[in-house]
Amino acid sequence: MSLLTVDIDEAGYKLQEAVISHVAFKLERSSLTGMIGANGAGKSTTIKAILQELPFVEGHVVREEGTSYSYIPERPIYYDELTLWEHFEFVAAVEQLGEGHLLYAKSLLKKFRLADRIHEFPATFSKGMQQKGMIALALFTKPDLLIIDEPFMGLDPGSTKMLLDMLDEEKEKGTGILMCTHILDTAQRVCDSFIVIEQGTVKACGRLNEVLAKCGAEDGSLYSCIDTVDDGDE
Ligand SMILES: Nc1ncnc2c1ncn2[C@@H]1O[C@H](COP(=O)(O)OP(=O)(O)OP(=O)(O)O)[C@@H](O)[C@H]1O
Known about the structure:
Elements: E1 4-12, E2 20-27, E3 31-36, H1 43-50, E4 56-63, E5 69-72, H2 84-94, H3 99-111, H4 127-139, E6 145-149, H5 157-173, E7 176-180, H6 184-190, E8 193-198, E9 201-206, H7 208-215
Parallel strand pairs: 3-7, 3-8, 5-6, 6-7
Antiparallel strand pairs: 1-2, 1-4, 8-9
The structure holds adenosine-5'-triphosphate (ATP).
């Protein structure tokens, strides 16, 4: 059985008003899958459907039994009244995680150079610092499945490299990763497979060569798979 099986007929924000339709794919352990598509194509909506955060989803989203997941949202979300470290303690308490996980959290925060800021409120952090805190919060739970929406936003080059190394390490541990991104050069280099979303449905899905062939991308670039040109027909 796959780590995650997605087979959505229709889903949206209002009953019977589909924003995505016929979105089907599988995610395996030890793999990094890039979900790409133009603005408004339906990537975040697909993630929300997987996370069961939409009022209307017809179809199936099935996670392998007993597996855990973490989600890194496009925009960092923190509780105003908790310091960064209190977020870790809160998640550890809710998910019944032990001292080993909190030690791992400290090592992640050190890597991201946040160790000396853990007793501050994340609202006072820069955008990139907030994003790094979110990444550490997602990783310290040691999830089987990691879902990330636009992870590189706001990260400096060193942190971007560190995140890519961390994703590699996660894969080696067996984690299955689904990552939405517009940074296509990086996606093309690091992802094992791709899902191209266009107008709320899957345009192509599979390994790089399969996706490029399906999209007719003769220049061998994922950029050619994304229809961003407004043809002015409206
Ligand atoms: N909360 C919402 N309520 C109603 N419609 C929404 C909501 N969020 C998104 N949509 C609509 O769903 C469609 C798909 O949006 P979605 O956010 O999934 O796109 P995306 O591919 O993630 O785009 P981007 O690259 O800009 O983040 C858009 O037409 C958008 O207007």
